[in-house]
UniProtKB/TrEMBL annotation:
Keywords: Chemotaxis, Coiled coil, Membrane, Transducer, Transmembrane, Transmembrane helix
Coiled coil: 305-332
Protein name per UniProt: 4HB sensor-containing MCP-domain signal transduction protein
Family statement drawn from the similarity comment of this UniProt entry: Belongs to the methyl-accepting chemotaxis (MCP) protein family.
Molecular function GO terms recorded: transmembrane signaling receptor activity
Compositionally skewed regions (Basic and acidic residues) per UniProt: 654-670
Natural source organism: Arcobacter acticola
SUPFAM superfamilies, per database record: Methyl-accepting chemotaxis protein (MCP) signaling domain (SSF58104)
Keyword Kinase: no
Length: 670
């Protein structure tokens, strides 16, 4: 009968007996604990509070006596009032404590002692009233005598309070002894009952355990066999052998049925897992085109199959997208990007990385093309200005060569004039006899002076041309320096060349200024010589009367001619130096042209390389705008070409005044 009982009935029977024993033990424990609690309640609610209240009364009576002494010792009304207030407060505290204690009295002996204390204390208060009256009148000695009389009454009711304390102490000790006896009896009884409960519990536990463990052992053997099969430790499964009809028997039957189903399902699952391992092995080697094809009844494995197939498809598609974009990047086509829709974590980071790479390369190409176009425009402007600088330098060199030839001719003429003047000085001793010859020589002198004036005018015109060339050369050097600064690192060498050109232009202008000063001096001297010659012609009619004056005039002409010779030689040296500087300017302009051509080739190479690649915004790239300044504007100046012809040495020149051209000095104005 017990064997066929279900497990819940067996456990209910065993635990029911234990519960009955526990209830019995609890009832007995409660009864004994209630008795102990009664004794504890007596101690805590009666004896201990009574002790506390008596102690408070005893302390308050001492404070009352101290306040009495304070009243006697006080000499002022304020001090007495304070002492009386202390007495009243202390008495109020004593009365409150007495009311509490009266409720805690529990024996006749205690009650009689309390009545005795009350009488003693009331008598003490009567004497206190007399004491206060005497103390208010400041009768200190009489008040002290009264305080001496109250000492006995104070000692009597204090002794009564101590007796009350002893009664409460004895009552608490008695209650404690009763409690200890009840506790000892209860302890022995509870231990006995507990021993009985433990023995019965062990017997019931052994019976139930043996009944349950037998069934569990059979289930365990069957499950171990099943788990060994699951763990591939065994190739077959042993079913659970249990014939009882309790829960374990029913569980064994259900488990046996499921073991058979599981065995069949595991075999199918193993086939799917083997196929999965094979496919994942190919995934590991990079073949993402493989898929799982086998179907089983296990929904988890079918879900795993679908997840793996979808994962492979997604990975294959995403990697193919990345490879396609990278292949286009390798072909210099940066227009396409990877679609990031649906991507997360590492795939999203990969797509972002490739897209960022494309954007970075596109930005770099746009910047390269922009710089190339800007450099190309700048180099074109530079080439144009350098070509103009070349033309100007060559024209300046040509003009200086012609100027040098003309000055050389003037030097020769002046030297001849000087020699002729020396001869005039020699012949002046016989001028009286040779008046007609003197008039002829004077005419020749006038003619030579006209030729000098003509040559000086030509020199002034040549100097004007040189001054204009230096002005234009300086402007072109400024343009070249600005263009070199715009070109950046590539134009650093050209900046040095442009600075050298500007220095040469400044030196040319300075030399031209010196030549102009010398020519102005020569012009003045030539005018003086011409005046003298005219005076000589007009004075030849009276030559005999004014011979001494004529000799003086000839001497003046000789001095002026020597000064002109010296001045024209200085002009010749300055023109030669200016010619050398102009030749250097031409060489610098040629070097600058080579640098500009190289810069233009580099710019075209950069633009061509950028145009060979496909990227977003390629057709919208424009050169950086160059700020419109004077050095970027075309300088249109008409260069004055002056052809200096050699003067006819024997042709009489017309008399004309030489005018200075110094009023409009263009270089100084610049």
């Amino acid at each position: 009968m017990i064997k066929n009982m279900n497990v819940s009935s067996k456990l209910g029977l065993g635990f029911g007996i234990l519960i009955i024993l526990v209830i019995l033990l609890g009832i007995i424990s409660i009864q004994k604990m209630s008795s102990v609690n009664d004794q504890s309640t007596v101690i805590s609610e009666n004896w201990m509070p009574s002790l506390k209240v008596i102690e408070e009364i005893n302390t308050a009576t001492s404070d009352f006596r101290i306040a009495q002494y304070d009243h006697i010792l006080s000499q002022t009304p304020e001090g007495m009032q304070k002492a009386e207030k202390d007495l009243a407060d202390t008495l109020s505290t004593i009365n409150e404590s007495r009311e509490v204690y009266e409720k805690l009295i529990s024996s006749d002996e205690e009650k009689s002692l309390y009545i005795e204390f009350s009488k003693q204390f009331e008598h003490y208060l009567e004497i206190n009233k007399e004491l206060i009256v005497v103390s208010r009148e400041n009768k200190t000695e009489e008040a002290r005598k009264i305080m001496g009389k109250t000492k006995k009454e104070f000692g009597d009711f204090s002794a009564t309070l101590l007796k009350l304390v002893q009664i409460n102490v004895d009552g608490g000790a008695k209650a404690n002894t009763i409690g200890n006896e009840i506790y000892a009896n209860a302890k022995i009884l509870l231990i006995s009952i507990m021993m009985i409960c433990v023995v019965l519990s062990l017997l019931i536990a052994l019976f139930i355990t043996k009944s349950i463990t037998g069934s569990l052992k059979s289930v365990q053997d069957g499950m171990n066999s099943f788990f060994a099969y699951l763990n591939r430790e065994s190739s077959s499964v042993k079913l659970i052998d249990l014939n009882c009809k309790d829960e374990f028997g029913m569980m064994a039957k259900v488990v046996n049925d499921n073991i058979a189903k599981t065995e069949k399902s595991i075999e199918d699952d193993r086939k799917v897992i083997d196929e999965t391992i094979a496919v994942l092995g190919k995934f590991e080697k990079g073949d993402l085109g493989q898929r799982l094809n086998m179907n089983v009844s296990n929904p988890s494995l079918m879900q795993l199959k679908d997840v793996l197939n979808n994962m492979a498809s997604n990975l294959e598609n995403n990697i193919n997208n990345v490879l396609n974009v990278l292949e286009q990047y390798s072909n210099y086509k940066y227009l396409n990007k990877i679609d990031q829709k649906g991507l997360t974590e590492q795939l999203l980071k990969l797509a972002n990385g490739v897209n960022t790479l494309g954007d970075s390369i596109t930005g770099m190409l746009i910047e390269n093309k922009t710089n190339g176009l800007t450099l190309e425009d700048s180099s074109n402007i530079l080439l144009t200005n350098v070509d103009k600088l070349n033309v100007s330098s060559n024209e300046a060199a040509s003009s200086l060569e012609e100027t040098a030839a003309a000055i050389e001719e003037i030097t020769s003429n002046i030297r001849n004039n000087t020699q002729n003047i020396a001869k005039m000085t020699t012949f002046s001793n016989g001028v009286t006899a040779s008046a007609s010859e003197g008039e002829r020589l004077a005419n020749q002198t006038t003619q030579s002076m006209d030729e000098i004036n003509t040559q000086v005018n030509l020199i002034n015109e040549s100097i004007t041309v040189i001054d204009q060339i230096a002005f234009q050369t300086n402007i072109l050097s400024l343009n070249a320096a600005v263009e070199a600064a715009t070109a950046g690192e590539a134009g650093r060498g050209f900046a040095v060349v442009a600075a050298e050109v500007r220095n040469l232009a400044a030196r040319s202008a300075e030399a031209a200024k010196e030549i102009k000063t010398i020519v102005e001096n020569a012009t003045k001297k030539a005018n003086q010589g011409k005046d003298i010659a005219n005076n000589m012609i007009s004075g030849y009619k009276d030559l005999n009367e004014n011979i001494s004056q004529t000799i003086n005039l000839i001497q003046d002409i000789e001095m002026s001619s020597k000064e002109q010779l010296t001045g024209i030689e200085q002009i010749n040296d300055a023109v030669n130096q200016l010619d050398q500087q102009t030749q250097k300017n031409a060489a610098v302009a040629s070097q600058t042209h080579d640098v500009a051509v190289l810069t233009d080739e580099i710019a075209k190479l950069i633009v061509s390389d950028a145009n060979a690649k496909e990227f977003a915004g390629k057709n919208e790239v424009k050169a950086k705008s160059l700020k419109a300044t004077q050095h970027q504007k075309e300088i249109k100046k008409d260069f004055v070409q002056t052809k200096i012809s050699k003067p006819a040495s024997q042709t009489p020149a017309q008399k004309k005044e030489i005018e200075s051209q110094t009023s409009k000095d263009e270089w100084e104005s610049f």
